[in-house]
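Sample entry (597 residues):
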Amino acid sequence: MKKPKPRPSDSRPSKKKKPSEKTPITKSDVARLFEEMASVLELLDENPFKIRSYQNAARAIESLPGELGEMIDSGELLNVKGIGKSLFSHIEELRNTGRLEIYEKAKAKIPEGLLEMLRIPGMGPKKVKAVYEKLGISDIDQLETAANENRVAALEGFGTKTQVNILYGIQNLRKYSERHLLSKAFTEARGILGEISKHRDVKRSLLAGSLRRIKETIKDIDILVSAAKSEAIMDSFTGLSRVASVVAKGKTKSSVVLKSGINADLRVVSDKEFPFASHYFTGSKEHNTEMRGRAKKMGYKLNEYGLFKDDKLVACDDEKAIFRRLGLDYIPPELREAQGEIEAAEQHVLPNLLSETDLIGLFHVHTTYSDGTASVKEMAKGAEAMGFAYLGIADHSRSAAYAGGLSTADVKKQAKEVKEVNKSLRGFRVFQGIESDILTDGSLDYPTEILELFDFVVVSVHQNFGLSQSEMTKRIIRAIENPYTTMLGHPTGRLLLAREAYKVDLYALIDAAAENDVVIEINSNPHRLDLDWRYLRTAKEKGVKIAICPDSHTVEGMEDYRYGVGIARKGWLTKDDVINCLDATGIDTLFASKRKG
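Predicted structure, serialized as tokens:
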């Protein structure tokens, strides 16, 4: 690849931390940087073994069971396969300085726009190199122009379909450029809140905005605190190690851009204003509008500063007191979307929402039999350590060759292993399932004699997304109608901020699930969160049961069930709506009814 001159912005010396300072660092931070390092090295035509070492290290770090800082301090990280002394020193450097010099130097050798192009789905390092070297394209704008002029399709290994996908990917990238996954925002927000809430001047604090309402994607982070004095708090906030730049700094509000690219706002109010500001800055706008309208009809005025009667502040110690003053039951933040929650609160019929502690087990996780990183026993022990009583394994089926789908022999081998694990783990149960691909005609991936071996069958679409709505709906309904289908997996196939849902009539799928006693999952992987919460109330009303499924490929990834619980709460679900709240005996009974066909 051509070696352009370093960019001036990369050539400037950066401010280094003192050796005694340590930057808060997460496993995902390190894994992401190592993946980027591998991509940069591939763009620079570096040694394939070197590239692979970073890729393997990224996967190893992502799937670590312990806390990264502790593993660095104890040296235990050196015992992890794929992490040698060199990579260990890189991780130490990242934590001690907040940067990795070898990465910065390598990145400076390529145009910044090439890294941006890697964010387009399907544009891996090889394709990015091809358009750069053969067409002189060095950023997304140039790539879009070339694709619109039909120049990209002519390149070897591209073609018209790839060119169309590139344009679609660019469109989505721009559409979602200012939004972030719920999980990414939560990780950052909890870190900030944890530091700010310890400040000596802070009395009360909370995460507000769409993050508190558990929206699937987040534009920015809103943090609210109460205090009598704000200057020192603002100094602490703008000086956090996570902060890349300060946009604005004031006595009541400061705004920063984090190193992760997320904008974060901190507001400081008096303690008597805190309950009202909590409600107002949590939103949504539509909910707030309805609440102000209700207050006005009752002779009050409600805003972020207080609830007023004849211009006199009505004291409220917390949000519950505000709702109570307005004749309402407390409305949980997740429900504040102007979807009938105020009427339900007035009539005292709000549901007792599902909580994390209601879950007894998890479903739909992957092991090393397909594309997971842990064995059946390791996943089981991980779930047990989280306090669960059972786990439903659902590896990929044979058509998913890209994910190491199970052959018939693999299915039988895994069944024996599950039996052995169940004997070895007292008081814990592993259910053997499968995530069967829904083939294009709607049939499942194995014949009846294999399907009947599983405790449960999750059916999912993984290929041929381009069918018409009618064709896709018929395809999935046929799979739902299969007597061995227990559960419909990620019903729309969407990948948040990356891939739109395929065209399908969700209401028809919900009806079919109701008619065939098929469970629908909330895929709790933060890239999916599918079924969308907006359809959950319909499913609930139709009597369709829901499963919380992390779709995890690592032990640590099973923690994603928490996002699924948040989405379930947002969809008005209670423990009675969710099969994870059944004990192992109840699950066995549920699954047995499907195994009978």
